[in-house]
Design brief:
190 residues, alpha+beta, 5 helices
């Protein structure tokens, strides 16, 4: 099936660009398209270096007291989890319990590259933490968890393979539209 799809896309390119007998140019174009797709996917998966803003509004709400003497904090959860959003949790919660409250990571989650962003740099001057939850899933060891603080943002990214699968659908759609254009063009030009 892949060979047929590749030959089909090659024939479309050959027709569209008028390069009927020039296989080298066709292969160069296919390589160029592959290179563009790979570069696009790579740029989506790379970590961007964050620079702290000089002027931004911090939340005034750090700890929310309750009637029973406990304090709650708000934490943002984004990405490949059951229910992303803002959640109010008790102060001192660990990462596994927090993720469980939002439905846990879904099947697309990349547990090796979870990021935790602080609202402001901590006492070590660190703003972003990389967390490998895969180690926790395999061993149950919570010793490498960091303390969750008020207004932290936790991002559970999708696996690169899932991003690729999503982009393949887009590329397939573009080739289908190109094929439709070629067929309609040949139908009406006859």
């Amino acid at each position: 099936m892949r060979e047929v799809t590749f030959l089909y896309s090659e024939n479309i390119l050959r027709y569209f660009l008028g390069l009927k007998n020039n296989m080298k140019k066709i292969h160069n174009i296919n390589f160029f398209i592959f290179f563009i797709c790979f570069t696009f996917l790579k740029s989506q998966s790379e970590d961007n270096k964050l620079q702290p803003f000089e002027d931004f509004q911090m939340s005034n709400e750090r700890y929310v007291p309750t009637g029973d003497g406990k304090f709650y904090i708000k934490v943002n959860i984004w990405g490949s989890v059951g229910k992303a959003g803002v959640i109010q949790v008790y102060d001192g919660i660990d990462l596994a319990s927090l993720l469980s409250l939002v439905g846990g990571p879904d099947e697309k989650a990349n547990l090796k590259k979870v990021k935790l962003y602080r609202e402001k740099p901590d006492e070590n001057g660190q703003l972003v933490y990389m967390i490998n939850l895969d180690h926790f899933v395999k061993t149950g060891d919570r010793s490498k968890f960091i303390k969750i603080k008020p207004n932290d943002t936790i991002i559970v990214p999708a696996k690169l393979s899932m991003v690729v699968i999503q982009q393949i659908g887009t590329i397939n759609t573009l080739f289908s539209l190109l094929s439709l254009y070629i067929q309609l063009n040949s139908l009406f030009s006859s």
